[in-house]
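Revision sheet: structure tokens.
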Amino acid sequence: MIRAIIQSVFEGVIKRLTASGRSDEIIENREYFQHYGFTSRPLSGAEAILIQDGNHIVMLASDDRRYRLAIEDGEVALYTDEGDHILFKRGKEIYIKSGNKLKADIENDVEINTKRIKAIATESADINTALLTAHATTSATLKSPIVNLQSDAITMTAYTAGVMPLARLVGNMQIEGSTEINLADMRANLRRLIDERFRVLFNAHVHSGCGGSVNSGPPTQTLEFADHATDIMRAK
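Predicted:
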């Protein structure tokens, strides 16, 4: 067995290294044996354990006490010299630390099953997808000083079959642009709120007894919102 200090490691189908051994012994272009499913490339100055059989030398293990994490009994960790690490802690806890970026490329599906999820992004959060569905069986709450919705159409339907959907607004409402509002229920198609007959009657009505026997003219402010509601309000 030879204890050596790694000088360099070269990638390839067979990973090879150069190291310094005892009494200025230089070990050049020797195989660095790896475990299946795991690979690493130690830095210059890391320690190595090699075995020798005649002129055949193979490196079996490496270590770097400069960057190795101090862990508790039974714990396991993967680490780098930059401080990034994955730590399998006691108490069935897994801790991941990245100083810059964590990225996962998944070809098909990602499934997470848990009781609670908490995500904290101090600057922003962005989700881009073709179809987004959020399903809350009890309630959903969105809190923000300002909420902007950009959509070609917004539809509200009942969550429970047979229940009339309810929209409640507490506070002021300002509508810019078209004032057309379509109200749908579960019994009819979209209807008109103010009957056209009421609009005609209102816009043509006069008051008698103005200045003797003279009637007043029709209203100067006409009703122009006849197309904004349902036949439930229609006079029969």
